[in-house]
Specification:
Shape: globular
Number of strands: 16
CATH superfamily of the largest domain: P-loop containing nucleotide triphosphate hydrolases
Strand content: 15-25%
Protein name: Sigma 54-interacting transcriptional regulator
CATH architecture of the largest domain: 3-Layer(aba) Sandwich
Largest sheet: 5 strands, antiparallel
Number of helices: 18
Strand order of the largest sheet: 2-1-5-4-3
Keywords: ATP-binding, Nucleotide-binding, Transcription, Transcription regulation
């Protein structure tokens, strides 16, 4: 009876996941073929299950089948990008993990797990084409980015960042920029580029967290026809940014294996397209950004030390908005001016209590959150000329300490801030309960000691 329940549970799991599952036995017959795989390949399950796999292969050549390769070679094929035509003739892109299934020493079949990347691949190809056409030298492109005049702020902290950035624009050295989300990392990056000798050349930005490793590698370094199933000859962003600047946003999200290839390009000045053998010289100035403290990403192993030191030739830290004093009001007035034009309003100023409310807010989303707040507030106003405290659309985060409960409106501060605050309180309470014993507190929280120590450091929690 237990085996029947176990089998039913496994079947439910297989059919409920988004990834496609395809299992063939040692003779090449399909034994498992879930709904996600059927939807991906536009096949009817009854036309596939319990039939020889070679009989259902139509548009894809047998020699390209990773399932059959694994069945023959008994070796894993990991993170394999594959393009092929489904039953309806539509090209699909998948990332596959294919492994032999061995019980004891006996091969019983091969299992493939496929993730549908068709939409993401189409989007990435469109991005590459747009960037390639935008920065084609024959087009004589206009500069569409920001410069230092666009940076608003009189506080000592932001002025220090601007001063370092201006010096960086006179150099070709790599730059590492750290700042919380919404602080203006790309604005600083573009200002460096457009104030440099590379200003007439391409500035290209790529978010390293936006795509999986297999696709990001092709976007950065390009692809060669035949490099993988369905690959075409296409230059990557390094080639497109030649003589210009490439911004790698959220470098802390780039997979470590890809970081090693990036390091090679930075050290040698050459790229090799995915699937290619030819080294291509590129002259690209790289600016990398991170929204996490560099010390933390190093200690957590999110970035290779050798890559970190190669990127961190010039280091720029952008202060969070809450540490910029009167810049909050300077920026607010600038956004009021901007949205007066856009919304056909005539707001002249902010009342004193409104100013106090803006200054007292935490601004987890920094300048981006401030702009959205002003835009939202002005959108709800009628013919008023003064932006008052009540009109400023900030939903405050509140804590009921007496009942140890948190009351958060749906539009309150971002979830990560709320979670972090609750996490900090739980850690303190666990330490109190454990009489300051970190090991016992970790057990209470269900964490390992090292993880708890990291979180204590993160929240600046100290114990004697």
């Amino acid at each position: 009876m237990k085996e029947e329940i176990y089998s039913e549970v496994i079947e439910k799991i297989i059919e409920s996941i988004d990834e496609g599952i395809h299992f063939i036995d040692k003779d090449g017959n399909t034994i498992i073929y879930n709904n996600s795989m059927a939807k991906l390949e536009q096949m009817d399950k009854k036309d596939v299950l319990n039939k020889p796999f070679v009989d259902v292969l139509q548009s894809m050549e047998i020699k390209n089948s990773t399932l059959l390769k694994v069945l023959k070679n008994k070796k894993d094929i990991k993170d394999n990008v594959q393009k092929y035509l489904n039953k309806d003739g539509k090209e699909i892109t998948t990332i596959n993990n294919t492994v032999p299934i061995v019980v004891g020493e006996k091969l019983i079949g091969a299992l493939e797990v496929s993730k549908n990347m068709t939409q993401i691949q189409m989007l990435s190809e469109q991005i590459l084409k747009l960037k390639e056409s935008k920065f084609n030298k024959s087009n004589n492109p206009e500069k569409l980015g920001y410069n230092f005049d666009d940076i608003i702020g009189e506080s000592e902290s932001i002025q220090k960042s601007i001063k370092i950035s201006k010096k960086a624009s006179k150099s070709d050295a790599t730059v590492l920029i750290y700042g919380e989300t919404g602080t203006g990392k790309e604005l600083i990056s573009q200002s460096i580029h457009y104030d440099s000798k590379r200003c007439d050349q391409p500035f290209i930005a790529q978010n390293c967290a936006a795509l999986p490793e297999s696709l990001l590698e092709g976007i950065l370094f390009g692809t060669v026809k035949g490099g993988f199933t369905g690959a075409v000859d296409r230059p990557g962003l390094f080639e497109q940014a030649n003589k210009g600047t490439l911004l790698l946003d959220e470098i802390n999200s780039m997979p470590l294996q890809l970081q090693a290839k990036l390091l090679r390009v930075l050290q040698e000045g050459y790229v090799r397209r995915v699937g290619g053998t030819k080294d291509i010289y590129v002259d690209v100035r790289v600016i990398a950004t991170t929204n996490e403290n560099p010390i933390d990403i190093l200690s957590e192993g999110k970035i290779r030390k050798d890559l970190y030191y190669r990127l961190n030739v010039i280091y720029i830290q952008i202060p969070p908005l809450r540490e910029r004093g009167n810049d909050i009001i300077l920026l607010s007035n600038k956004f009021i001016e901007k949205y007066n034009k856009k919304l056909s309003k005539s707001i002249k100023s902010i009342c004193d209590m409104g100013i106090k409310k803006l200054r007292n807010h935490y601004w987890q989303g920094n300048v981006r959150e401030l702009e959205n707040t002003i835009y939202s507030s002005m959108s709800m106003m009628d013919d008023e000329e003064i932006l008052t405290e009540d009109m400023i659309n900030i939903n405050e985060y509140k804590t009921n300490v007496a009942e140890n409960m948190y009351v958060v409106d749906i539009d309150a501060r971002p979830l990560d801030w709320v979670v972090a605050d609750i996490e900090e309180r739980y850690i303190n309470e666990a330490l109190n309960k454990a009489n300051e014993n970190v090991t016992k507190a970790a057990a209470i929280l269900g964490l390992c000691r090292q993880n708890l120590q990291y979180k204590m450091k993160k929240y600046n929690i100290t114990r004697k």
